[in-house]
């Protein structure tokens, strides 16, 4: 020991990584493009709030800030669906009352920065990395009107989807990199608190207005408001950002398609006009590291679309896996970074795919009766065969099962559920002894087909 560590980006993942490395005894310096959000009034970034699930909690616990975040986290035990005809339905997420938790991105990021500093890390704000020489680890920053050069020893790129370190990797030989934009973008809107300060919708749920090719969602904030996000095509004749040109277009569109939400959104027109329309990107890259010199982490390694609420959770899991490898390999960074890439690259790719698949589920399938029946059956199977069957959603959100394993289970679960759903008179036959035996065999066959996969450690929360 002990190498000094430079981290690009004091976002969620960079700050958490700084906590972990500082606690391990490394001298850590972070360079962050933006001013310090604890003193400047700046937006925290790409969403007001985000959902923390079990992988994220595990990392926060390791960083020692779980207790500090818990009071500002609102549990969401299920999806509340708002249909076009004004009716509503509710789908519980887990069979054991598990929840995902809505947390303010800004508060979480601020706390992580403070804990990183308390652990010994130094953060330089207003330093935008403009160039990385990936062979020498020489960094160039723009700071105010000056160019600043820094020589890094061990370097991590935690600087998000458009990472400067990632750009450096892309210029190197034998690096495969790709990016993919959805045809949809998003815009944040607001449902303010009720006059008495309470919530205008059920507080402990993630609200969805699924409309096939697009959707509106809302997550609760501790002040009684909800932050809504409209996921919507950029272009298209009728339902698209391009088509809604005037306030009148926006008002008419919302009244027609989200009538129950419009009533709760007094600032809809200002929000729609003033808030940016942002794009949704998925990135992949290989390799994730260069020898013992540098590595990508969080969105810099795997930017994904937000439909599984896993981007930050996956980035936090990168950090906890890295910590485990430090415990295993001491300060042999060649080994640590090689093993990190080997363990995490496949999971970064898998969670990216899962996220795109969940977009279709959220905006389209959740309103379909056949899909709802399937969800009900998944819960039944999970309760009847807890050792053998856990649904895909539960594996992603409530377990530490590697995302790559989750992807590998999808086909086998589809086959099992299809078998069960094709049984005639399913509702009445479910309870019969003969069907019970049949079901046992089918579930056992499913379990046999997946049981040798790596399911990771059991969930902790
Ligand atoms: P970022 O949060 O992007 O942080 C990167 C940091 O690096 C920033 O502080 C940035 O200013 C800094 N930086 C960038 N470039 C430079 C540079 N050149 N030099 C110096 N500093 C630089 N994830 C979830 O787990 N749950 C959710 O519910 C969820 N909801 C989301 C909703 C939306 C609408 C979006 C867009 C994303 C959502 N995500 C969610 C994903 C989540 O936001 C990201 O995965 C997470 O922010 C990644 O953290 P990061 O630290 O890797 O990158």
From TrEMBL:
Pfam families: FAD_binding_3 (PF01494)
Main EC class the enzyme belongs to: oxidoreductase
Cofactor(s) in the UniProt record: FAD
Associated pathway: Cofactor biosynthesis; NAD(+) biosynthesis; quinolinate from L-kynurenine: step 1/3
Keywords: FAD, Flavoprotein, Monooxygenase, NADP, Oxidoreductase, Pyridine nucleotide biosynthesis
Enzyme Commission number: 1.14.13.9
InterPro entries: FAD-bd (IPR002938), FAD/NAD-bd_sf (IPR036188), Kynurenine_monooxygenase (IPR027545)
Annotated FAD-binding domain residues: 4-167, 289-349
UniProt catalytic activity: L-kynurenine + NADPH + O2 + H(+) = 3-hydroxy-L-kynurenine + NADP(+) + H2O
SUPFAM superfamilies (UniProt xref): FAD/NAD(P)-binding domain
Similarity comment: family membership: Belongs to the aromatic-ring hydroxylase family. KMO subfamily.
Primary role: Catalyzes the hydroxylation of L-kynurenine (L-Kyn) to form 3-hydroxy-L-kynurenine (L-3OHKyn). Required for synthesis of quinolinic acid.
Protein's recorded name: Kynurenine 3-monooxygenase
Organism: Rurimicrobium arvi
Taxonomic lineage: Bacteria, Pseudomonadati, Bacteroidota, Chitinophagia, Chitinophagales
Gene: kmo
């Amino acid at each position: 020991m002990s190498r000094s560590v430079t981290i690009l980006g004091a976002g969620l993942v960079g700050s958490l990584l700084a906590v972990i490395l500082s606690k391990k005894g490394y001298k850590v310096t972070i360079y962050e493009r933006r001013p310090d959000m604890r003193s400047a009034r700046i937006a925290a970034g790409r969403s007001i709030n985000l959902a923390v699930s079990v992988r994220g909690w595990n990392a926060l616990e390791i960083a020692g800030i779980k207790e500090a975040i818990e009071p500002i986290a609102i549990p969401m035990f299920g999806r509340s669906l708002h249909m076009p005809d004004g009716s509503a339905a509710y789908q519980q997420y887990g069979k054991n009352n598990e929840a995902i938790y809505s947390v303010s991105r800004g508060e979480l990021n601020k706390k992580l920065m403070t804990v990183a500093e308390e652990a010994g890390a130094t953060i330089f704000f207003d330093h935008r990395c403009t160039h990385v020489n990936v062979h020498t680890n020489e960094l160039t920053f723009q700071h105010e009107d000056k160019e600043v050069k820094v020589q890094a020893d061990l370097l991590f790129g935690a600087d998000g989807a458009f990472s400067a370190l990632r750009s450096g990797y892309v210029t190197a030989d034998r690096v495969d990199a790709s990016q993919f934009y959805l045809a949809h973008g998003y815009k944040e809107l607001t449902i303010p608190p009720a006059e008495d300060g309470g919530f205008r919708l059920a507080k402990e749920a993630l609200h969805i207005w699924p409309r096939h090719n697009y959707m509106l969602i809302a997550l609760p904030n501790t002040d009684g408001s909800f932050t809504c996000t409209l996921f919507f095509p950029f272009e298209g004749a009728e339902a698209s950002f391009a088509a809604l040109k005037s306030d009148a277009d926006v008002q008419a569109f919302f009244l027609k398609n989200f009538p129950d939400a419009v009533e709760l959104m007094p600032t809809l027109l200002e929000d729609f006009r003033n808030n940016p329309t942002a794009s949704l990107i998925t990135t992949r890259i290989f390799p994730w590291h260069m020898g013992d010199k540098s590595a990508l982490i969080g969105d810099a390694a795997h930017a994904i679309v937000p439909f599984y609420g896993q981007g930050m959770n996956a980035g936090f899991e990168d950090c906890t896996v890295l910590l485990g490898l430090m415990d295993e390999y001491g300060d042999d960074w060649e080994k640590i970074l090689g093993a990190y890439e080997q363990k995490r690259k496949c999971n970064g790719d898998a969670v990216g795919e899962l996220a795109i698949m969940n977009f279709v589920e959220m905006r389209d399938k959740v309103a379909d009766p056949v899909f709802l029946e399937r969800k009900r059956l998944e819960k039944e199977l999970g309760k009847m065969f807890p050792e053998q069957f856990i649904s895909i959603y539960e594996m992603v959100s409530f377990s530490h099962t590697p995302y790559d394993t989750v992807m590998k289970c999808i086909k086998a679960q589809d086959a099992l559920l299809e078998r069960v759903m094709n049984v005639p008179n399913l509702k009445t036959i479910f309870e019969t002894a003969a069907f019970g035996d049949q079901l046992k065999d089918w579930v056992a066959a499913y379990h046999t087909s997946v049981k040798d996969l790596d399911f990771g450690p059991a969930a902790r929360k």
